[in-house]
Amino acid sequence: CVITGDPHIVTFDNQNINTQGICKYTIARSPDGTDVTKAFNVEAKFENRHDNDMVSYVEYVTIEVYGYYIQLGRDNAAWVNGELVNPMHGVVRPGLRIVMNGNYVRVMTDFGLAVENDGKWTALVKFPVDFVGATEGLCGNNDEDPDNDLLTKDGVNVTGMIDSVSLLANSWQVGT
């Protein structure tokens, strides 16, 4: 799943979503009942930039996994449970690593979840092949069918509805 620009989201199944909210959204998470060794939650906070309130961009990305709360922000900044860490030197915690991957800070888990953020425009969420159908959020359900990617938090497919993207985004908004 790719989140880039102002923001354009390309789901795991290649559905395009364009939303301009300036709030925090669930991007991808494991469904309820997932084995706790593979449970995760990825959120992204969007903000306006350059005095332009017509578009929004990724401000930061958070990942919750294995009891860690990881935040990836601007200028390759990364925090683990509130502690600033340096991904340039590689950070290792049980079950995960935080490293630089080109211009991106990358968080990788031992079960194959990878989240990257360049701190400017783009965030990526990647899974191994065996995660087919094992996600939910704005990035979709990863079941190789783009026609059902517009599922709200309550499981309603809003594809074809008036204001479908707003309905979808509002349902995955965090903190409302």
Automatic annotation (TrEMBL):
SMART domains, per the entry: VWD
GO cellular component: extracellular matrix; extracellular space
Any Pfam family the entry gives: VWD
Keywords noted in UniProt: Disulfide bond, Glycoprotein
Keyword Transmembrane helix tagged: no
Record-annotated VWFD domain positions: 1-176
Domain of life: Eukaryota
Name this protein carries in UniProt: VWFD domain-containing protein
Organism of this sequence: Capitella teleta
